[in-house]
Design a protein that fits this description.
- The complex is a heterodimer.
- Chain A is mostly beta strands.
- Helices cover about 0% and strands about 50% of the residues of chain A.
- In chain A, a hairpin with a 6-residue loop joins β7 and β8.
- Chain A starts with a strand and ends with a strand.
- By secondary structure, chain B is an all-beta fold.
- Classes of the chains: A mainly beta, B mainly beta.
- Chains A and B meet through β4, β5, β9 and β10 of A and β5, β6, β10 and β11 of B.
Chain lengths: ~120, ~120
């Protein structure tokens, strides 16, 4: 069964460093998303991406964040200068088609720890 | 205001008991979808069910059942004869229409279920 994959599973970085979280969405999916879950809290939407551009982003997704689809398979989230409060689990998701009714398939997550 | 409210933060039940997880949502849209996801201790999000706003028929899948009531904006989830493997955090989520540009999920704060053997 096709699945969303994410690498690495755990990333430890120093405050101020740049990190890139990688995701490989399901191959025939057209819509891609990043979510964040601070430990013990709810899952929060960061950004959605379609047709090589951001379609929606939340207040959390400030100038420190960027997303990219560098090739036909990867979808990345870059945090330019990490802060302690960026420590969280980051989930990538993808959905097959347009519209809100599509189930989003989530990856296993990348746990980011900022020291 | 929260779009999805899961008032139960933590629930503990003894194995084989039934348990209901509550979810109340808020939206002005007439067309929307509701979802339940399970997050086991390993951390991944596992899809359980999707329900659209026009389908209020209750659904049963094995030991799982869902009660969608538009009149009370609730989408409750019941596990019958709970098992230890059901121990996880359960998230309810709402998806509203965003035209052709995909959608944003609004998650509740989750209910942590512990099933005691």
């Amino acid at each position: 069964e096709p699945e969303v994959t994410q690498t690495p599973s755990h990333q430890v970085t120093q405050m101020g460093q740049e990190v890139i979280l990688r995701c490989v969405p399901i191959s025939n999916h057209l819509y891609f998303y990043w979510y964040r879950q601070i430990l013990g809290q709810k899952v929060e939407f960061l950004v959605s991406f379609y047709n090589n551009e951001i379609s929606e982003k939340s207040e959390i997704f400030d100038d420190q964040f960027s997303v990219e689809r560098p090739d036909g398979s990867n979808f990345t989230l870059k945090i330019r200068s990490t802060k302690l409060e960026d420590s969280a689990m980051y989930f990538c998701a993808s959905s097959e088609g347009q519209g809100f009714y599509n189930e989003q398939f989530f990856g296993p997550g990348t746990r980011l720890t900022v020291l | 205001a929260q779009k999805v409210t899961q008032a139960q933060t933590e629930i503990s039940v003894v194995e084989k008991e039934d348990v209901t997880l509550d979810c109340v949502y808020e939206t002005r849209d007439t067309t929307y979808y509701l979802f339940w996801y399970k997050q086991p201790p390993s951390g991944e999000l596992v899809f359980l069910i999707r329900r659209n706003s026009f389908d209020e028929q209750n659904e049963i899948s094995g030991r799982y059942s869902w009660n969608f009531q538009k009149s009370t904006s609730s989408f409750n989830f019941t596990i019958t004869a709970s098992q230890v493997v059901d121990s996880a955090v359960y998230f309810c989520a709402l998806s509203e229409a965003r035209g052709n540009t995909g959608n944003q999920f609004y998650f509740g704060t989750g209910t942590s279920l512990t099933v005691i053997p």
